[in-house]
Amino acid sequence: TWLDQKRPRISNPDAFNELPKTVHLGIYAAGINKIQTLEETTDRDWEEVIDVNLSGAFRFARAVAQRFPKDGSGVLVFISSIMSTHPYPNRLAYSSSKGAIESLTKALAVEVEGKFSTFAIRLGHIDALMSTTKTNPMLLDEVERLSLDKTLSEPSEVAKFITSLVPFAGLINGTTIEADRGYT
Question: What distances in angstroms separate CA 159 from CA 4, 27, 107, 146, one per listed residue?
Answer without folding.
Answer: 20, 10, 24, 23
